[in-house]
Amino acid sequence: MKKHLFGFLLLLLSACQTVTATPSAKSTPTSPPPPTPIPATPTQTFTPAPTSSPTPVPLYFSDEFNAPDTTAWNSFQTGGATAPTLAIENGLLRLDIPAPHTWFYAIHNAHDYQNVTISAKFSSAHSGSAGLVCYYSKDGWLEFNLASDGTYTVLFGQLLAEGIANYLPIASAASEYLAPGAMDYEIGLTCQPDFLSLFINGKLFRKLDVTRFKLESGQVGVTASSFDEAPAIVTFDWFKVDETQ
């Protein structure tokens, strides 16, 4: 069951306050909430410091997940009582989320970027969301998500401790390019120090001013979440990093 936070997110936007997501028992068809701040299981390992992939990766690249090696990816979760898993199999990057109210991140650890365009093709038959991450560092990150209820969200996230994060909503709305139900989209995000540009299926539909967050560089990656129902499985067909023109 979804939570009724859409109005609450707009109130937080007007107040420009950092919020920590909390669970609610209410059901609503509106946009998904930030994840519940529940510590990760003791076996989950989070690596906040940038590390280098043992295999050299070009600055700009396209990954179609044809090899089972996941060493170029660091993963961590926020919320959730059980640790998700990350795997490359059958030409897909697969994120399995066994517990509800869990947000799972896979961060590509090869490079930091300042002006960058990232995109991915993903699908999921489950209730939840999936998206892209940029400017990931110890200072926080920005993320753009598409949800199974036909809405999108843009968030500023900041890790407080292992498995616990604060999320500040930047934007949340329905879109004519999204439909409730199973997800099968190409998502794109251009990240510049002052602006984010949002794409769905190759169509630029919104630009956002993010100057106030003072994030200028960081790593990039993908994210997926579960809502009230679990498990949730999201697969990425490909992930691409391009220079911003």
CATH hierarchy class name: Mainly Beta
What spatial form do the alpha-carbon principal axes imply? globular
SSE sequence, one letter per element: HEEEEEEEEEEEEEEE
CATH architecture, by name, is Sandwich
Q: Can you identify the CATH superfamily? A: Exo-inulinase, domain 1
pLDDT < 50 runs, ≥5 residues: 1-32, 36-47, 49-53
What oligomeric state is this?
Answer: single chain
CATH topology: Jelly Rolls
How many strands?
15
Given helix and strand content, the structural type is: mainly beta
**Percent of residues in β-strands:** over 45%
Termini separation: 41 Å
Rg calc = 16 Å
Mean pLDDT: 84
Output the number of helix runs: 1
Proportion in helices: under 10%
> What's the structural domain tally?
1
Major beta sheet summary: 8 strands, antiparallel
Walk me through this protein's architecture.
With 245 residues, the chain is mainly β. Strands 1, 3, 4, 6, 11, 12, 13 and 15 form an eight-stranded antiparallel β-sheet that branches. The protein has a seven-stranded antiparallel β-sheet with strand order 2-5-14-7-8-9-10. It is globular. The protein has one helix spanning 6-15; strands at residues 61-63, 73-79, 85-89, 92-97, 102-113, 116-124, 128-137, 140-147, 151-161, 164-174, 183-191, 195-200, 203-209, 218-226, 232-243. β11 (183-191) and β12 form a beta hairpin. The protein has one domain (6-42, 59-243): Exo-inulinase, domain 1 (Jelly Rolls), CATH 2.60.120. The model is unreliable at 1-32, 36-47 and 49-53 (pLDDT under 50). The chain is built from one helix and 15 strands; from the N terminus they run αβββββββββββββββ.
